[in-house]
Amino acid sequence: MAEQSRTRWRALGSRWLGLGLAVVISIVTLGLGVAGQLTLYISPESIWFACAGAVVVLAGAIWSCTLPLGAEVDHGHDHGLDDADPDAVASPRRALKLAGTISAGIVASGVVVAALVLPPASLSVELAMSRADAAGTLFAGADTPTLGVADTTTFGVGEWSSVFATATRPEAYDGSTVTLTGFVTPGDEADAVNLTRMIITHCVIDAQPAAVPVSVAAGESGSGEFATGQWIEVTGTVTADSDGSLRVVPTSVVAIDEPGDPYEY
């Protein structure tokens, strides 16, 4: 009886670590997709693939319910364990393998349950600031501005950040009007802040910050109209300074709530 109980618990644990975790992740994925919040984690182009994969997993889970408990670990042979030395079966290697499996299962279960319980959230401002120093220049659309034929009316923070960093003829952009949305991070100059946006290529793992300088005074920490982390919408004009650097001189700066889709792609 005790052996049957242990066998049953092993089968339940194996099914949870395999099928159970996959089903929970699939449900979370479909729920975020329906709610329009999956873009907090992956790019819009990948949503259909993720949701299709989740549907396939759920279909497989339904089919697997027709299998008896423990069938997923039954290969149709016993690997010769019946003839094995009992001391070898209970070797330290097997104990270490069991401990590793249990530890990995606990960690994986914790991550999956957290994904199910915790509300979706965008990447933090602190993360954007920490990656700003390590991130290289974003070259989104940089090849077009170099040729001087870019339609800047469609540019977001990512494209303008590339232009500000790489333009060989900054005067060509002097006077361009912009309307940009992002959050405030500290600027390099005392009379400016950076308008920052996280740029995603595939998912949040590869997210990198892009920023453009805006000539507005930053608020004091914890107060002020434009404190670090505040989302704002800036309407203004790109201005080329005498040293060839570019900045946005705003005609209107409005504090806003974080948008439903806080990233650019």
TrEMBL record:
Domain of life the protein comes from: Bacteria
Pfam families found in the cross-reference section: DUF1980_C
Keyword Metal-binding appears in the UniProt entry: no
NCBIfam families per record: TIGR03943 family putative permease subunit (TIGR03943)
InterPro entries for this protein: DUF1980 (IPR015402), DUF1980_C (IPR048447), UPF0703_membrane_permease (IPR052955)
UniProt keyword Transmembrane present: yes
Keyword list, A-Z: Membrane, Transmembrane, Transmembrane helix
Domain DUF1980 residue range list: 168-265
Protein name: Repeat protein (TIGR03943 family)
Regions that span the bilayer: 16-35, 47-69, 98-118
